[in-house]
């Protein structure tokens, strides 16, 4: 848990007296995707974690941040069990139960990975028809690909982690993996299999923005005031290029 009331700063703890009496309960997807969020010594670290820390310091809003499986995260937002989340794409379904702070905190590009020996056999998106596609459980794609999935053009094989999907790709249990570009390439290097799996030179969707959002059904005192304060803080961070600075701390551009 990350809270403004217990943040490690340099050599000790500091206590911040926030301007809001009630802390926000925020969540994020527990799938490890470097450099966004991953576990180190049992604790999550990364770009998203540092962004929330900066928001806490600038806003005076107390935020308790916890990881959740992706589908449970979305369900808790829809049910109002969480006040908000960090690191989610915007889509019409989520906009039914969430309000986005409309300032991107990061950008993400989903790409297609295959075993190196299959690289020449896929030259266009039409070649994916009939293939078994690996994806992380609960992750959404653009509307065209989601429609193709609904129409049965592909078989979807879901896993809980990208590492599991990579192992399935190597074992031939899936034909392709759709996953975040930089995070997946980092993981391939960490697993020592970057020479066995290749990135297809195909773009099936544009780079998409990632946001902080608030749950509409959640009940919390002065939610609108917190939302407006969050807009002000993120606007300042965007103008000051704080998001880029945080990303550079993890050698990520």
UniProtKB/TrEMBL annotation:
Source organism superkingdom: Bacteria
Residues of the signal peptide: 1-21
Pfam families associated with the record: SBP_bac_3 (PF00497)
Keyword tags: Signal
Classification via SUPFAM superfamilies: Periplasmic binding protein-like II
Keyword field contains Membrane: no
Chain ranges of the Solute-binding protein family 3/N-terminal domain: 23-246
Family: Belongs to the bacterial solute-binding protein 3 family.
PANTHER family tied to this protein: ABC TRANSPORTER SUBSTRATE-BINDING PROTEIN (PTHR35936:SF25), MEMBRANE-BOUND LYTIC MUREIN TRANSGLYCOSYLASE F (PTHR35936)
Name of this protein: Amino acid ABC transporter substrate-binding protein (PAAT family)
